[in-house]
Amino acid sequence: LAALERQVFDFLGYQWAPILANFLHIIIVILGLFGTIQYRPRYIVVYAIWTAVWVTWNIFIICFYLEVGGLSKDSELLTFNISRHQSWWSENGPGCVRKEASMSGIKGLDNHSYISVIGCALEYRYIEVMHSSFQILIALVGFVYACYVVSVFTEEEDSFDFIGGFDPFPLYHVNEKPTNLLFKQTYL
Predict the structure, then answer these.
(1) pLDDT at 47
(2) For the segment 102-130, what is each residue's pLDDT rounded down to a tens digit?
(3) How many Cα neighbours within 13 Å face the side chain of 99?
(4) Cα 183 from chain centre
């Protein structure tokens, strides 16, 4: 549900890189749930590997919005340089007031307006950082759970006796021939 919520807000902000990452995350989570329900450890291992990638992606998002290392939150990196859109939270955060100023005097920008945002209770970059931090927390819990489920499934597979089932004493007894009969020649 948290990934779906994040997907909605990334769609509202036209942030194409996070939209693709969230979509892939939703697909892998469904695959992991299917693997858990259908007792398929390989699907759960794929989910566990994906959680490591997902944590890395969210760490990148945190570094992006906090402008760590040469990253800038004002760059068009998350929109694939297609548009100048930013996070939806930049204009619609808690307590934010949007003020639009018409730019009709400039040729070619008749339908565009300058938007200024004031009075935000919390900057949008901190909201994005909280979203990513929450995703990391959920991913770590999911990783631990996936490892536990895979270990339980593989332990169950190793303990099953395919001939006698789970019974320590089978209902039938196989009479084995003595080894000396195997080496006797048969005469016609």
Answers:
(1) 93
(2) 655 555 544 555 566 667 777 878 888 89
(3) 6
(4) 62
**Two tokens at 68?**
């760590």
pTM for the whole structure: 0.67
Report the distance separating Cα 156 and Cα 141, nearest Å.
Answer: 23
Q: Which residues contact 58 (CB under 8 A, 6 or more apart)?
A: 132, 133, 135, 136, 139
Q: Which token pair is 67?
A: 């402008």
Report phi then psi at 102, rounded to 5. Answer: -70, 140
Instruction: In whole angstroms, give the CA distance from residue 59 to residue 61.
Output: 5
Closest CA relative to residue 47, chosen from 24, 34, 23, 31: 31
CB burial string 116-150: b at 16+ within 10 A, e below? eeeebeebbbebbbebbeebbebbeebbebbeebb
Q: Tell me the H-state helices in the chain.
A: 2-12, 16-37, 41-65, 89-92, 124-159, 179-183
Pairwise pLDDT comparison (39 vs 115), residue with the higher score? 39
C-beta of residue 59 within 8 angstroms of C-beta of residue 131:
no
Read off the amino acid at residue 185. Q
d(CA 61, CA 18): 9
